[in-house]
Design goal:
- The protein is an all-alpha fold and 298 residues long.
- It is 86% helix and 0% strand.
- It is built from 12 helices and no strands.
- The longest helix has 32 residues, at 266-297.
Amino acid sequence: MSKIAEISIFLSFLGLWLTSFLKNETQVFVGFILILSFGISHGANDLLIIKKIRNENSTSYWKMLSIYIGTILIAILLFSFISWLVLLLFIIASGYHFGEQHWEKKIFTKQKIFHLLFQTNYGLLILLLLLHFHDEEVLKIIYGITDILISKDLLTISFVTSCFLQIVFFCYASYQSRMFQRNLIKELFYLIMFVIIFKVGSLIWGFTVYFIFWHSIPSLCDQIKFLYGDISFKNFKLFCQSALPYWIISMFGVVISYIYLREYKIFDSIFFTFLAAITFPHVIVIERMYNKLNKKTE
């Protein structure tokens, strides 16, 4: 078990322990603070990663930057007309991104299609697990964003389907790889831990524990390794310094929108559009980063 995994487990149980003392309102407040700090920070250095990739690739930096900005603009434009589609794509992209982060260093098969499906379904399972325990709140949020009323049955069917697929994937991976067999108990332990945390905590708190401790912090470590070669306090400072301007711009936009639009339904739409718009290109950048890291190890 890696040190990062050990830290994530410790912080997760700390988060679980805190649910006994923090009211739901406090959980939401602390959760948003963590999401807007570590969460957004872990994606604030995308442009620096693009520049690093460009130095090792013939692809033009400006071409990659144009794709990055263009993806954001397309997401915003699509949300204005078909918000339900952006929401669906956002969930799928987030599922792949979460699964990729968790399993990227645990490659147990060279079948790329299977690995892609495995990663995506695993990330979706995490999201659907969280949504399953807070379905009423989730349905209200979806309705507030898209004006579409979704039944609980659809969430349940999606969750059960994802569970079934993951069982199939686990069985196949165990058959294909002894390495996977050795790690299966550990991975099942992680899932059981997520079940407990998602069940006991609020929607925002459960998402915060997973997103920050199991995704953002490990992703920050991977990005620091990619950009500076190794993880150290010095390199962490360099990462934060380079990310600070983009983080400040993002926070300024969120705060201004909240001040002027908090009383209106439009704020929810704008905040979700902001998250979705920056998530899509971030997923692309990180996927390219992992491709570079994998080529170096081959």
